[in-house]
Amino acid sequence: KRFGEEKGYVLYPQIGDRLDLICPASEPPGPRSTMDYEYYKLYLVSTQEQADRCEVTGPPNLLLTCDRPNSDMRFTIKFQEYSPNLWGHEFKTQQDYYIIATSDGTRQGLERMRGGSCL
Fold first, then answer.
1. Quick one: three-class SS letters along the chain?
2. Where does the pLDDT of residue 28 fall: very low under 50, low under 70, confident under 90, or very high at 90 and above?
3. Poorest-confidence range of 24-38, 46-60, 77-91?
4. Of 4, 47, 84, 111, which has the fewest beta carbons less than 10 angstroms from its beta carbon?
5. Do 93 and 75 meet the contact criterion of CB atoms below 8 Å apart?
6. Can you tell me the distance from the alpha carbon of 17 to that of 24, in angstroms, rounded to the nearest whole number?
7. Does the pLDDT value for residue 108 go beyond 70?
8. Which of 23, 28, 49 lies closest to 38 in space, CA to CA?
9. Which residues does 3 contact at the CB level (< 8 Å), separation at least 6?
């Protein structure tokens, strides 16, 4: 069971796997779009406590900003232990990572750092 009660979506990636985070365009409507565009900022947080509270504390690790209703946006995470990119993400095996969205889906709520629609 991948969806738990208020626990979001759980994945078990292996080193070398990739995960695409996609913000689908709503204008024109496409196969993945919703009726009204939803504005989100997706953050990688380091603790379960931050994920449970749906709160970004410390320097934010922003992955993707969904703020362009006219175009699809995509961010690909490659699960790797070492990144050749200075700003790349590095992931260790047997460690948990959390992606949250603290905005509420509205343009006005885009800058919120707590609450919102945690994933």
1. CCEECCCEECCCCCCCCEEEEEECCCCCCCCCCCCCCCEEEEEEECCHHHHHHCECCCCCCEEEEECCCCCCEEEEEECCCCCCCCCCCCCCCCCCCEEEECCCECCCCCCCCECCCCC
2. low
3. 24-38
4. 84
5. no
6. 22
7. yes
8. 23
9. 9
